[in-house]
Design a protein that fits this description.
This protein is an alpha/beta fold. The protein has helices at 11-18, 29-42, 57-65, 76-85, 100-109, 119-125, 158-171, 188-205, 230-245, 258-261, 293-296, and strands at residues 7-8, 24-27, 46-50, 70-73, 90-93, 113-116, 134-138, 146-148, 174-178, 183-185, 211-213, 251-254, 265-275, 279-282, 302-305, 316-322, 336-339, 347-351, 371-375. Strands 1, 2, 13, 14, 15, 16, 17, 18 and 19 form a 9-stranded mixed β-sheet that branches. An 8-stranded parallel β-barrel has the order 3-4-5-6-7-9-11-12. Bound molecules: pyridoxal-5'-phosphate. Residues 38-262 form the Orn/DAP/Arg decarboxylase 2 N-terminal domain.
């Protein structure tokens, strides 16, 4: 992915010129930078990017160009990707379970912040990590609000967090706190509950955290007509910070993945077959760029175009949509509203699919070879 990269005007211009028979994902640097600026301008604190949502160099470079300097990494491989795409980036290593080898590599990469949720993992960091580093205690609450809840896997209980925070401070690290409300979280009350709980934990520990990392989980636009209200969430976070900790609250930090990159990408799939006038078979599905559909629900923001790039505008029909593999699970949940004049060879474009799509693609059954093309605009 070098400087010689070719730019296309729009997805339809690329489709008209190349008639791809494989799925293509279109990246729009302009949109990536706009999403980054929305966080930088709107969030009441520092903004980090959770690399796992989409580690593509185009993403990392454009977020950096828009002013993102901090990246949340979970593995040495992600550290290497960040270092090569954004030399000098600040890295936060927020996977709370690490091998001794991984810790040694993180020190070599110059990581400056770690999160932990157990005494055993803190003990593993202590011998090799500089006391100039920040160590954030990750805790969890039984809060609903996200489509997918990470709470089950990571996070100390509030009682454990009190002890961990004291231990971090006693070891001489810069104490901080963190949580992650789960992904595609649309309810500001989730952040509020976590921030107020963080204040209680800090008070019980008698430790003042330097920073409070409110995680990722910010929602992207998945259902048409229902754009998420990030500003409402930002204000709720700011208000809760002041309510919980007072005006002298810890520096707030967020680490969005999904909401930073989703809008920057559109996936073009091709209609392989329409069987019995009802069942649509696409050349990509849940083992490819639409991997999240079974877990998160289908993205219904679609446009259908002909191979010459012209949109189909017929009245919509609810269709059952299958992916290309021979696995019967390879089906989008529910039905998708698609134009009745759509025919085989047309393209179904899914909008807002930049997160957890290219990052998790498989080559199951010989499918999943996603081409990535860069466009000036995602408008069809
Ligand atoms: C995955 C993850 C994120 C990003 O989550 P999104 O829902 O994509 O915003 C942020 N922080 C941590 C610790 C994560 O594991």
């Amino acid at each position: 992915m070098g400087l010689q990269q070719e730019f296309w005007e729009t997805p339809s211009a690329h489709i008209r010129a190349t008639r791809p028979d494989h799925p293509v994902i279109y990246a729009a640097p302009e949109m990536l930078q706009a999403s980054a600026r929305r966080f930088i301008d709107g969030f009441p604190g520092l903004v980090s990017y959770a690399v796992k949502a989409n580690p593509d160099p185009v993403v990392l470079a454009n977020l950096a160009a828009a002013g993102v300097v901090t990246f949340d990494v979970a593995s040495p491989q992600e550290m290497a990707m960040v270092q090569s795409a954004v030399p000098g980036a600040v890295m936060h290593y927020n996977n709370p379970v690490r091998s001794v080898d991984e810790i040694a590599q993180s020190v070599a990469f110059g990581v400056t912040s770690y999160s932990i949720d157990s005494l055993s993992e803190l003990a593993k960091l202590a011998p090799s990590v500089s006391r100039r580093c920040e160590v954030a205690v990750r805790f969890k609450l039984p809060v609903a609000g996200a489509v997918y809840d990470f709470g089950d896997k990571f996070g100390a209980t509030a009682d454990q967090a009190v002890v961990l925070l004291q231990e971090v401070a006693a070891l001489g690290f810069t104490p901080a706190m963190t949580f992650h409300p789960g992904t595609q979280c649309t309810d500001p009350a989730a952040w509020r509950a976590y921030i107020l709980a963080a204040a209680d934990i800090a008070k019980a520990a008698g430790v003042k955290p330097a920073r409070l990392n409110v995680g990722g989980g910010f929602p992207s636009h998945r259902q048409s007509g229902n754009a998420p209200q990030l500003d409402v969430i930002f204000s709720a976070i700011k208000a809760a910070g002041v309510q919980g900790f007072g005006p002298d609250h810890p520096v707030l930090l967020c680490e969005p993945g999904r909401a930073m990159v989703a809008e920057g990408f559109t996936l073009a799939t091709r209609v392989k077959a329409i069987r019995d006038g009802a069942h649509v078979f696409l050349n990509d599905g849940i083992y490819g760029g639409l991997a999240e559909a079974p877990l998160m629900g289908t993205i219904d923001r679609t446009t259908v175009i002909r191979p010459d790039g012209m949109p189909r505008t017929g009245p919509v029909l609810n269709r059952v949509v299958f992916g290309p593999t021979c696995d019967s699970l390879d089906r989008l949940p529910g039905t998708l509203r698609l134009p009745s004049d759509m025919v085989e060879g047309d393209y179904v474009l899914f909008h807002g699919v930049g997160a957890y799509s290219t990052a998790t693609v498989t080559r199951f059954n010989g499918y999943g070879a996603l081409e990535q093309a860069v466009v000036f605009a995602l408008s069809v």
